[in-house]
Amino acid sequence: MKELIDVVAKMNRDIAQLKGLTTKESAQDWITRTGKKNWKVEGQDLDDNPTTPDNIVVFDADGNKRYIDGYYTTDPKKRAFFKDYYTAYSNPDKRDEMKQSTYAYDKGYKKHAPSTPYREFLKIVNARLKRFFTEHQINLKARQKLKIIGQFISYLWKIKYLPEYIKREDSRFSSYTDKDFADQDVVKRNKKSIEKIWEKYKNEITNHFDTMDDATFSTLYNAWRKYSTGAFQGGMELEPSSSSSSSSSSSPFNA
User: Fold this and answer.
1) In a domain, 65, yes or no
2) What are 187-230's pLDDT values in tens digits?
3) How many domains does the chain have?
4) Measured in Å, how far apart are the chain's first and last C-alpha atoms?
5) Per-residue pLDDT tens for 107-129?
6) What is the rounded CA–CA span in Å between residue 72 and residue 65?
7) Running DSSP on this structure, what letter comes out for residue 229?
8) How far apart are CA 199 and CA 189, in angstroms?
């Protein structure tokens, strides 16, 4: 109890746990999935008792212990946030009126990330992709769906969709192929130009995805599937529905 008092009262921190860090295998998987470079996991006998299992210790890149059997101490700011939130909304009925995430932004505990062309594009395509999955009753696991969304939208942004607008505006890239855009990372290396192109065409692009028929959307999706063969396993070809209607947008993807 003394140690708990030291953490909670003297250090002004809370204790939390990531249950996925309770074995070496799951902890290593978490390190890999979250992209934490030079982090490592070890089993250590922290209580000097050979009869008890080793503790699972996760170290950061500087060698500091960050998690022990999944347990860690939280940032004092997080504790202050919860104290303020549960003081202001002390019962479930009140909390139904104000979600934690909304309160965090309203009170400045969290800052909204600045908008970028890619974030705006992601929202547009994500909405269309979710609608397509719903209409075709395609059910995917959450992790599988996130993987599809991330890779598919990145592909459209860097290789298959946005580059068509780049070709319109910059003759240097008029003869570039999908492979050229991918190999030379044109979008990433021309951020200022992309911002101007996005401002000029974002309304057209938004309208195009809002009104895009199944056949066109399926073509884009299946082009990504062929491009990323091996990068994603367990997916499926999307077949356009028989009720597809033609889009009236002036996008370069319309026949």
Assistant:
1) yes
2) 989 989 999 999 999 999 999 999 998 889 988 988 888 887 74
3) 3
4) 71
5) 888 877 778 999 999 999 999 98
6) 9
7) B
8) 18
